[in-house]
C-alpha cells in the first residue's frame, strides 16, 4: 500500500538562511511562498519554484526582539503574514516588501497564532494560557480570555463558528465563536494534547499528543474516527495537505509520518 503513495519519488530540498533553530513554517494560500520563524528573532519568506533547483529568492522580516515562535499567512491574501514572538508583540508583514505594516503589544510571551478562515481576525496564545483575538483591520484586541488550564495550540474550524484549544489535560476544548462559550470537552488523549490541524475541506480535525498518537476527529459529530500509531515520541506538529487527504505528523525524533486518512 505504501508504494502507491505519491511521496515515494519525491526528494527533499534544504533552504539555509536562519542563524538558529526554526520553530515554525507555513505555506501561503497559493502554495508559492514558504515562511519560517526562528529563534534568531527573524522570519523569512522563501519564494518556491516547484521544479526549480537554482538559488531561491528569500526575504528577511526583521523587527522582533525575541524568538519568532509561530507564524501564519492571511488565508485570503498570498502576501500577508502574521508573526507571534516572545517579545510580547504580534506583527503583520507584507511579504513583497518585507515591511511590518501593523504591530500590537500584548500582555505575555506569544507562542501561538492563527487566522480566522475569512481573514478578519487573528487569535494569539501566550505562555500564560491567555487568548487574545485581534481585529485585523484595526489590529486591536477585541476579545481576551485567561484559561485555568494549559493551552498548547489554537484553531478555528473552517466556518469560523467554532474555536478549538488543545490542553495539557489531554482534552480538546471546543468553544463557540465569537462568544467563546464552552460547547464541548473532548477526552482526546491520555497525555497532553500538543497540536491541532483542521482539514481544509472542513470535515475533520487532527490532534497530536504527548502519548505519541495522532487522532482524527469528525467535526460534525465530534467523534474520533481513527488513531495513527506510527510515531514513538510526543507529537509536536501536524498538518493536512491542501486536499485534506493526507496528514503529516512529526515528533521529537527524526521522523515525519505521512498517512492517508482514506487508508484502511
TrEMBL record:
WD repeat spans: 15-49, 61-103, 186-227
Biological processes per GO annotation: mRNA export from nucleus
InterPro entries tied to this protein: Tex1/THOC3, WD40_repeat_CS, WD40_rpt
Annotated GO CC locations: THO complex part of transcription export complex
UniProt keyword annotation of Repeat present: yes
KW Nucleotidyltransferase (keyword) present: no
Highest taxon of source: Eukaryota
Keywords recorded for this protein, A-Z: Repeat, WD repeat
Name the record gives this protein: THO complex subunit 3
Source organism per UniProt: Carya illinoinensis (Pecan)
